[in-house]
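Exercise: predict the fold of this chain.
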Amino acid sequence: MSPANVVLSLSLLLGIQPVTTDLYLPALPSLSEGFGATMAQAQYTLSALLLAFGTSQLIWGPLSDRFGRRPVLLAGLLAYVLAALASTLAPSMAWLIGWRVLQGAAMGAAVMCARAIVRDLYEPADGARVMSKGLSGLGVLACLSAPVGGAVSEFLGWRMTLLVPAIFGALALGLIALRFEETLSRPNPQALQPGRLLGAWLEIMRHPTFMAYSALAVASYGGLFTFLASSSFVFIKIVGLSKTQYGLVMFGMCFSYLLGTFFCRRLLARFSVQQAVAIAAGITLTAGLLMGGLAWAGLENVWTLSLPFFLYMLGHGVHQPCGQSGAVAPFPQAAGTASALNGFLMMLVAFATGSWLGTHMDGTARPLAYGLTLWSLTVAGFAWTVVQRYGRPERPAARAEAP
């Protein structure tokens, strides 16, 4: 494939996540009212989807190492489209949660394969730069998702915000079917043997480089998910924004993330991955302390909540491409399995965060603000310690790459 085709494929495969999670956020309060459900139940349409998304990657990863990326992508995207269509027609909140779980499981194939494709085609240093380009495409889609979702919900109703991902999934499926060429040069015929698979998981989880970069990616995503899971209720119910105005706030958040991915490539042109992560951690920590301090002072308005988070997303645009590519770098022949474990850890933390927020939202913005402060401290701690010590893989992990 041409480099442009690789980046386009990565952008669509990675971008399916914000299309699935961000686009319907402006409609979340209306969705809960439409079903007569609680805020906690409505949040499960997001957190349960992400738990299924993370867990499914543990299956998709070895499947892709055994049969290749292309068949897994085709099967996953087809299942995603069907589940998204069923979500649109769900008659109750319970059915909606169920279909969203299946949609999240299918989405796992797309995002997991995208990370594995980068390792299939590029060495670690180049992989971080290519991943940042793919995540720039994700940033563009994320910028569009919330404003489009706000407008669709405002004029067409909340159910239509569940239909748009089905259309996007169908477009991605068509592109992969027509333009994507297999990137896995040596399928592993033993990848699905239970003993071998368990051994590979244990080997990957024990690798210090994998754990260092996974910890960074997990913590950074924890802060993002804290915002995603609570922001629609905070900005619409507490601050008093309209759905369209909230969509613009989300646009600003995503645009800041997009700038962060460009900033990432500028940093990587001058510094090592570990140095780039350390610089971005200072930005992340500043953002978290600022939001927590303003909330502690009782200042809760659109500017005191959004501007610090825009700064957080600038750092997130560095941590995610470096964290995701760095975690997979030591495993050239088990990239799917390593990618799956990395994604599983991120979504496990997201599910726990969403569950906590569902029971601790108290009518103020403090759970959001203090949660972001905690995750910012965690990101900086990992970036300045374990990533600096273990962030440069000395050699591929032989046992994990050829079980």
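Check your answer against the key: The radius of gyration is 20 Å.
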